[in-house]
Amino acid sequence: MEELVRPWRLGPRGRWWFDVLLAGTLFLIIPFYAIQVMLNGGAARDVDSSSHVADLVLVVLQLVPLLWRRRHPVIVYAIVAGACGLQVLLIDYPLVSQVSFPIAVYSVARYARPRWGLAALAVGLLGSVLGTHDWLSSVGTASTGEVQDGINWSSYVPVALSLATFPVAAWALGALARTRAAYVDSLIQRNEQLRREAEQRAELGATQERARIAREMHDVVAHGLSVIVVQADGARYAAEQDPALAPKALETVAQTAREALAEMRQLLGLLRDGDALTRPQPRLGDIATLVEETRAGGMELTATLPEPGLAVPEGVALTAFRVVQESLSNVRKHAGPGAAATVAVTAAGDTLEIEVTDDGRGAAADASGDSGGLGLIGMRERITAHNGTLETGPAPGGGFRVYATLPLIGLAQ
């Protein structure tokens, strides 16, 4: 899965330095503003030492808290808003440091809960009304020398609306940034969740594949060793009775051992990363070869097999081959000496039927099919995976019977 690219953001150190530069830049404006007032000789207003002290205190209260606006947005906003309120009470003219108020509103809307952002917006709107009233009153008094009665609405409303745009815009930008950050974080979290789920599915698939390989290994080892044991016993007997037959039996033992070893190496290769099978899996036509090998091992075997070239899904063909292989291995292990077996593999309509019976004493053996209990259990798992059925038990007239059906339609190829 393609990894989601995270948007570029300032780190903790970068955010700290950004806030330092922001507050420092605003703070440096004040000396130039004071110098300009002093050079004008106080023509615009009466400049005295007390006003300078009040200005300095207000500037510090309005700008310095911005350094902590990300970690403590509500507290910073309360200090800045309080300083702006003191400004209305102490002086009748604006300060450049008042730009800290919309920055504080933005910080609350961006980093605090939505209700705190709405509260900051409400206070900002109220402050724009009070500030407009205070400044317009001071301007009117300074120009006429008399205190004005009433409110000049033609001047009051435009100024109040103009001042209100600052907290409204700051709140809107902060809320938008908070919503966008939450959306991006949710996308990143969702991407991480999908990635973990994909890894879990891959691990589950690997586990299932290893279980399949274990069943394949059991079938290969059980079949190969059973043939080897039978042929080795035959070779020992031939060496005592008719030495001319011993080489043929030993040749069969060697050939079976080589084939079983090759298949084991292929299956074990699947457990290594990057390895793959170099030989195709057994198909339906390979059952004929399996029958010939079993006959060569000395078992009397009658087989009814489908015509070569019968098209069936690969999974069904492999399952049919393993069912016959496991059943014949069980006959050699449990049916006793001299037992004869019958194999019938037929395609009836949309179903593949497999029947393996013997006339030995297998019905009296362990019902699991082998001492470890993995033979018929693995066989049943294979057939169930293909929505098939399996019947095992004593055959009529004695012996043991394995009967399986596999559907040929509605399967994933």
Automatic annotation (TrEMBL):
Alphabetical UniProt keywords: ATP-binding, Kinase, Membrane, Nucleotide-binding, Phosphoprotein, Transferase, Transmembrane, Transmembrane helix, Two-component regulatory system
Superkingdom in the source lineage? Bacteria
Enzyme group, top EC level?
transferase
Among the GO molecular function terms of this UniProt record, one is: ATP binding
- State the signal peptide span: none
Every Histidine kinase domain range:
322-410
Tell me any Pfam family this protein matches. DUF7134
List its EC numbers. Answer: 2.7.13.3
Where would one find coiled-coil regions in this protein? none
A cellular-component GO term for this protein:
membrane
Q: Which InterPro entries match?
A: DUF7134, HATPase_C_sf, HATPase_dom, His_kinase_dom, Sensor_HK_TwoCompSys, Sig_transdc_His_kin_sub3_dim/P
Membrane-spanning ranges: 20-39, 74-95, 116-136, 156-177
So what does this thing catalyse? ATP + protein L-histidine = ADP + protein N-phospho-L-histidine
Give the protein's recorded name. Answer: histidine kinase
* Annotated organism of origin: Nocardioides luteus
